């Protein structure tokens, strides 16, 4: 396994030096044509198309119904070890507490003339939550369900529809159903892939359409979400996952290697980068990466990820390291430095920041509370984590008084006529006539 080591003299060198990373943005366009075909099939054939695609990709003998019954959910949840249910419950409590702090309230302003202006914050009526199957349903992505369902519940969304691929025998992993049961979610469908995104967007005989779709997925799921955006809202267009670690001489190279590998094992397009001002740390980290990677069950995936998209970057000082981090705008940013709180004010762009030696990314992925659905590929420059706001919409409220209208009628009409909209002007002026 090799991980490139780069030496940067000045942050301005980074854009040219990092050209090799651009390949992560273009994994290929072959997915779009296939997804367009899937969307059209589901729109035209409904449940029949869902059955066909599920038989082809997930469960050869799949048959309707799509929906898992409440009794099946309860029975499956009962088969999960009590210890596991307690862990899921503790994680859910942490996630709920964090997202409850995000709730925005409606507000109103009263003007002296008696006009009332405001903003009404309301949840969407229905949300579709996609939960990846994970290696044929054998590695259930419980955290993905918690991270999308809980913000929607906190927002007040009355209907949550969960879609997840079935296993080869047609069942849903009981740990996923246990999490749904814990969250009092009773609408779970045994369907995944891009075809489930189409069903959530357009609706079928078995699955009513939703207003917002959230949750991570592979390139086909992500492409489907991008193509149905506008028909429905989505959380974000997420690319391959990534971590960037800023480290100084106080950092433990074994810990840093473990953190980088925790990202690299996701898939071959994942990126793990460490930026440091300490050459000795860089050398020790490179050795640790080689040693620890060889011992991983997913060593081949992690090794390819590090070779293609990983790097150890040497900078002249910590200020330069932070400047490069801001240019990358990573999904996950770890500050493994002596005083991370002194560095935090200078971080401009990151999906989530992990502070200090005892805050590895995995703490946030599973248990701390903040959402792990985060912007990738530099989009943290302008977008944010999945949140309660993903499942809310804001409506402006205008209650103009007679006094306000009379005082401002001429100005409003003048602006309308400047734009060539005579009927707009007259709709204001008519209210001044007796």
TrEMBL record:
An example Gene Ontology CC term for this record: cytosol
Domain of life of the native organism: Bacteria
Catalytic residues (positions): 331-332
Pfam families noted in UniProt: Histidinol_dh (PF00815)
Cofactor note: Binds 1 zinc ion per subunit.
Purpose of the protein: Catalyzes the sequential NAD-dependent oxidations of L-histidinol to L-histidinaldehyde and then to L-histidine.
UniProt-listed HAMAP family: HisD
Name of the featured protein: Histidinol dehydrogenase
Organism from which the protein derives: Desulfovibrio legallii
